[in-house]
Write a structure and sequence with these properties.
The chain has helices spanning 6-11, 31-39, 59-64, 80-87, 98-109; strands at residues 18-20, 45-48, 68-73, 92-95. It has 115 residues and is an alpha/beta fold. A four-stranded parallel β-sheet has the order 1-2-3-4.
């Protein structure tokens, strides 16, 4: 089995991609992957996650680098930068109740439309 290096894996992510990122308030987020996305300056991302963590932590690094075009999340309260970008119209934020977000993800995994 051949493995793919982190930099090559991130290089395969196009600008404008939708990424589902794990973690809860930054705990459990793939930090090395997030750091590499920032390093490679991937832009106009749609991030599907529980939250946008905090500035400088987890998904908050993507927000701080202004790489997120849209966040589909259940919580943004710990990240004032997400709030600022949302209020300034710089980032679209779709707030979804946590249970509904999980059901959308589950339905999508089965190939069912989940809007």
């Amino acid at each position: 089995m051949q493995t793919l290096s982190l930099d090559r894996a991130v290089a395969a992510i196009p600008d404008g991609a939708s990424l589902m990122i794990g973690g809860f308030m930054g705990v459990g987020t793939p930090e090395r992957m997030v750091d590499e996305i920032v390093r490679q300056n991937k832009r106009d991302l749609t991030v599907i996650a529980n939250d946008t963590a905090a500035p400088g932590k987890g998904i908050g690094k993507l927000v701080g680098a202004r790489l997120v075009r849209k966040a589909i999340v259940s919580h943004i309260g710990l990240n004032p930068e997400t709030q600022r970008q949302m209020m300034a119209g710089e980032m679209e934020v779709e707030l979804v109740p946590q249970g509904t977000l999980i059901e959308r993800i589950r339905a999508g995994g089965h190939g069912w439309a989940a809007s």
